[in-house]
Amino acid sequence: MCGICGQYNFGDRTPVLRQNVEKMTKTLVHRGPDDEGYYIAGPLGLGFRRLSIIDLAGGHQPMSDVDETVWVIFNGEIYNFRALRQELERHGHRLQTTSDTEVIVYGYKEWGTGIFDRLNGMFGVAIWDVQTQRLVLARDAMGIKLVYYTIQDGTVWFGSEIRPLLAALQQRPEVDPVALNLFLRYRYTPSPLTIFKGIEKLAPGTMLVFENGQARRERWYQFKPQPFSPMPTDEEAGEELLAIYRRAIRRHLISDVPVGLLLSGGIDSALLLGLMHENGKDWPTFTVGYGASFKDDELQDAEATAQLFGARQASVRLSARLFEETLPQIVRSL
Q1: Nearest to 6 by CA among 31, 37, 51, 29
Q2: Alpha helices, DSSP H only, in 8-125?
């Protein structure tokens, strides 16, 4: 989990102050304890905090091509980056690192925003095109990673969380009663709303483009389901689904740091652990629960699942007292 943020004065194009971007970026230290980086160029400022996962030495961000015509900050993981790297090299590009971030840089140079359709993964990303002075913010198709933003008087501030936006604004925004009502009703806030007036989040599969002094929001993800022809049998469908799961697990296990699993007592995470077991042993697993005092607690079931697959289980029990003491601290940190 990394953190991205930035400011772009796309209206009057006045220079961005580095200290303002640094102030935003410092609110994301908890997301990226390993590294930080900045790119300040006239009306644009990008900030980044890194949690190193792939290419620990060469994955510093913001990242650019060798000519410094495209700059990228990216939170997430691209699972098909090796295949994309090979394809880009066939097109004549010479990548300098083994980072998944770099395929976004050169993918944008090759395909423009069409790169998003080629990415298999999760991402919240900002792309700065130096030659066209275009900023593109985008969110993955399923909305796994978040991009928040606010636009005021020709300036956009954005970030992986709301924290950097609050750090940038002169006044703390008011709570949006419509968003609060929806949250209390549905237990989530639908895009583009957030709990604060004037702060929005990109919908899944959507991008926000700033160029020529204007901002426009577009949906880049245009999935069209195709009917099966011929219709598979139940057995064939089951085999195909299992093959898809296995390929996905192998891609998710690509990492230059240890990989673990959040394990519940249910079928989904048990299936994931079982498929991970096909690719290695002794995986670390983690479960958080309230213990026997909570009737739906899953700690015991998770421990049994971990034991079945020989995983190294770490169980964390939360007491009601600890929850009550911690909740006000979390609220104040916002």
Answers
A1: 37
A2: 18-26, 81-90, 101-111, 115-118
Residues 203 and 248 in one domain: no
Q: Are residues 177 and 310 in the same domain?
A: no
Q: Is 2 a catalytic residue?
A: yes
Per-residue pLDDT of the chain (334 residues; tens, 9 = 90+): 799 999 999 999 999 999 999 999 999 999 999 999 999 999 999 999 999 888 788 899 999 999 999 999 999 999 999 999 999 999 999 999 999 999 999 999 999 999 999 999 999 999 999 999 999 999 999 999 999 999 999 999 999 999 999 999 988 999 999 999 999 999 999 999 999 999 999 999 999 999 999 999 999 999 888 888 899 999 999 999 999 999 999 999 999 899 999 999 899 999 999 999 999 989 999 999 988 777 788 999 999 999 999 999 999 888 878 888 888 877 676 6
Q: Examine the domain organization and report whether 16 and 83 are in the same domain.
A: yes
Number of domains in the chain: 2
Among the three residues 192, 219, 246, which one is the final residue of a domain in this structure?
A: 219
83 and 148 fall within a common domain: yes
CA pair distance 102, 241, nearest whole angstrom: 31
| 311 lies in the same domain as 259 | yes
| Pair of tokens at residue 145 | 């990673």
Catalytic option among 1, 2, 92, 213: 2
Any domain includes 329: no
The whole model's pTM is what? 0.92
Structure tokens at 130: 């130096």
DSSP 196: B
User: For residues 203 and 139, is the Cβ–Cβ distance under 8 A?
Assistant: yes
Structure token digits, residue 243: 């093959």
Q: Are strands 44-50 and 35-41 parallel, antiparallel or unpaired?
A: antiparallel
CATH code of 273's domain: 3.40.50.620
